[in-house]
Amino acid sequence: MKPAAVNCPVCNQCSYSEWGATGVYAVRRCTHCGMGITFPAPTFAESANVNQEKYQLRSRIQTYDSRKKYFSRRYRRQLRDIRAFKAGGTLLDVGCNIDAFLTKARAAGFQTTGVEMNRECAEYAQSQLGLDVFNGRLDQAGFADGAFDVVTLYDVLEHVPEPTRLLQEIRRILKPTGLLVVQSPNIDSVMANWTKTEWQWLCLPDHLFHFTPATLATLIGQSGFEVQAVRTWEPADVFWDNILQLDLRKRPVQRIARKAIQVSGLAVPLTALLQRIWWSRRKGALVESFAVK
């Protein structure tokens, strides 16, 4: 297979193996570090069209409203983890969406600001939730050096054409010893390897890069941060939803196993138990990294 004519953003090598493909887009893994890259890279217009269709305001509101308990638990956990490093201060959420997370952070005592590319979502956060949200790219916001104690990037870095440049801009606006929190899908996860191109978090061509725990930590470290912790996790119900949607006509073993678990009624509890095992091996579908300036 002819390799993609692009260097890996993590190790700067140009040697790839194909991991999977959907339509005209393929994911290729760097043979040196394991980083995944979407190839061919979508044009700016293609990315903008995907973003506009996938992240419509109505669908975003429906997603949050239909899973309020889940998101409430998730945000409490995220804020607990942040407070293990920073008890309070100024917090910036980059790619904040509408932003339900910032409302929880504000209620927890943080002084909150958001950045969001989607105009409708940014305006909703401003007008309906009373949040301070800048509509545009982070480098357009004009934040001062050392403006924030905490910057969060939840499910954002995989969308960014130049992730190192974004991380360097975040480092500039963080205070000394400021905290960076990054979450991204883990292409080295059990879910990704079991479901391949049917993985719900693959999202081609919306996701340009596909991180592993090691490649995410390396990229953050190369951008001038000191990585403090890297771990993986995933919601048990989301894992099971992905399994239920698999086309198993060519996977008889998985089909029989799925049917047996469905009949037993042990789907979510069994998955939750197994997850604890593969999370300890950094095989959860979402990877989180905590780093300081």
Written description of the protein model:
The chain is α/β, with parallel strands linked by helices. 41% of the residues lie in helices and 23% in strands. The chain has 11 helices and 11 strands. The strands form 2 sheets. Strands 6-5-4-7-8-11-10 form a 7-stranded mixed beta sheet, with helices on both faces. The protein has a 4-stranded antiparallel beta sheet with strand order 1-2-3-9, with no helix packed on it. Helix 5 (119-129) links the parallel strand 5 (111-116) and strand 6 (133-135). Helix 3 crosses helix 4 and helix 9 crosses helix 11 (267-280). The longest helix is centred in the N-terminal third of the chain and has 16 residues, at 68-83. The protein is globular and about 55 Å long. 36% of the residues are buried. The mean pLDDT is 89.
